[in-house]
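Open question from group meeting: does this chain pack into something compact, or does most of it stay loose? Before anyone orders reagents, we agreed to write out a predicted structure and look at it together. Recording both the input and the output here so the notebook holds the full record.
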Amino acid sequence: MNILVINGSARAEGTTTALARSFMEGAQSRGAAADMIMLRDKNIGYCTNCLTCYAYEGEGVAPCSLKDDMDAVIAAMVQADGICFASPVHCGFVTALMTNFMDRLAWRAMRPAPPLGNCFNLESRVSDKVRALGSIATAGGMPLSLRRLCDEGTRWLKSNAPLELHGQWIGDMYAAADLERLPESERDWKRLYFLRKLSAPQFEEARQLGVRMVEALEAGNLKPDTLENSIPRGLRGIMKWYFTWKPLFHLAR
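Structure tokens returned:
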């Protein structure tokens, strides 16, 4: 069993990486092999929107006009049974490293599909197995009352990664900064992020996420989170009937 971490931190030894290692230790404690890819160390260019991947109608991962390290990273993800996305929270979202990576992954791993009559839908190009997916997000000195502002990146990963990678989301964690001490001055408030530390409960939560991912894979009952399955069954039936009778492209005229 292979577990992979995609790490979007720009720091090689920051809090995100430390928690990702705890996640890996949890997976390894259940007998899984675990590896981590640091996006900061890879040559991954910006998507040019050339639509080469989108237009591909063959089997497997779609080609890309850019020739860089993305091919090797996708190959590792295809081989993985479980994948954890790890990222700090920057301006309320995952890092630019992670968003650029997901831009490049999207249509290479996913394509349009019409299972609801002619209603637009999506399917994974890598549907050889159901992968277990999860994430770790770390933040600075954010008050608990503003926690919701730090969750957009997690929600974004949770809504996109399963569609692209034929996976089921099994869990995620958010690690706000515990502080070495409470701020004692205006200068402390301005340097709040430098007072941060990781706590033993946070390390254990990351470790347990790794354990839970392996347990979910061992149970053998994962089901992919698809766009079609996100629609209630009754509404799906109505949509299939309606769009069979009146295709979606007729409505767009």
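Observations to bring back to the group:
The beta strands are 2-7, 33-38, 82-88, 110-116, 119-124, 131-138, 167-175, 178-179, 196-197.
Residues 200-219 form the longest helix (20 residues).
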